Amino acid sequence: MVAPDRQPTLADVARWAGVSVATASRVLNRSAPVNEDTAARVERAVADLGYVRQRSPHLARGHSGAVSVVVFDDMLRYQRDSFYSRLLVGAERAALRAGRELVVSTALRNAPRDTLLRYLCGGHVDGVVMVGMPSDGAPAQVVREAGVPVMCVGRPAVAGLSYVDANNTGGARQAVSYLISSGRQAIATIAGPSNMIVADDRLAGYRSALAEGGLAPDGIVCRGDFTVDSGEHAMLRLLDRYPALDAVFAASDLMAFGALRGLRRLGVRVPDQVAVVGFDDGTLARHTMPRLTTVRQPVEEMGARAVAELLVADESCRATVLKTSLVLRESA
Questions:
Q1: C-alpha to C-alpha distance for 134 and 205, rounded to whole angstroms
Q2: Alpha carbons 49 and 5: distance in angstroms, whole number
């Protein structure tokens, strides 16, 4: 392996030592126990590369005038999902109030990000809001190591990172409790991907409501990926396996829309035969047939709070969880 011909970063140290960025960060910060052999490899990499921990240049010369939002998703989904546009509306308003411009980037979750990280750590922005961050937390670790503040939208999988989120567990619990109180007994869920914290939190709320309502707590689960097509495919699979279903809680409005489309294809009446509830309350929810009962999360406020909290001169770890509410319409 060849040493970089520039100032080495934490990512370079991790690569040289053959460990994750999060592990390298834990060794250097002594924030969690790491076995001796791994720690020695990281320390040897630091010496070999001449790595020096330093604060971002912008901290020494005042603010740069910009805040970055990085969305870890592919460009097509970024353009199609109104969640992102609504989030950015709130973020931009907060940035303008603080006298900053908003710089928006997208990045695939599993793709190399060295160029993006060098930009974020190079003094070009006063802080970074990360949306849908990969579960290893590596991008946030690298940026924070450079002295640039980081705020996550959505509860991160790794500890020690500040975040703003909606009450995903509580919102899902309220939705499913409503279905139970309406007399529904065979309630399935179309959950999100198993590698996303938001999907796990909403699944936990679904199961909590089932247990509180005296139903089998494991429930009936089929997973999608927060897209319309995945919701439709999941709905068709569920009805094939469980024809007696009388309700479905979908972990996003897009998947709920897909579920409605699948039910329509099969001639199943909503809500007479199967009730459908989503999660988000974007514009789509008011234009489905029938109109979608869903959990409203304050997406614009999440974006605004993320930027506002990011620019607070405080390095403590902060968690802001915003309330959700159930919006009743004709689908349930």
A1: 22
A2: 10
Task: State both tokens at 49.
Answer: 């590369």
Separation of alpha carbons 199 and 299, rounded Å: 16
Q: Which residue has the tokens 């870890």?
A: 72
Give the Å distances, CA to CA, from 187 to 45, 164, 219.
53, 30, 7
| Tokens describing residue 119 | 């930009």
CATH for the stretch 168-297: 3.40.50.2300
Predicted TM-score (pTM) of the model is 0.82
Report the Cα–Cα distance between both ends of the chain, in Å, rounded. 59
Task: Give the model confidence (pLDDT) of 148-161 as tens digits.
Answer: 999 999 999 888 89
| CATH no. for 58-165+300-324 | 3.40.50.2300
Token match 């909290």: residue?
309
At 317 the three-state DSSP class reads coil
Identity (one letter) of the amino acid at 107? A
For the chain, how are helix, strand and coil distributed in percent, rounded to 5?
45, 15, 40
Phi first, then psi: give them for residue 221, nearest 5 degrees: -120, 130
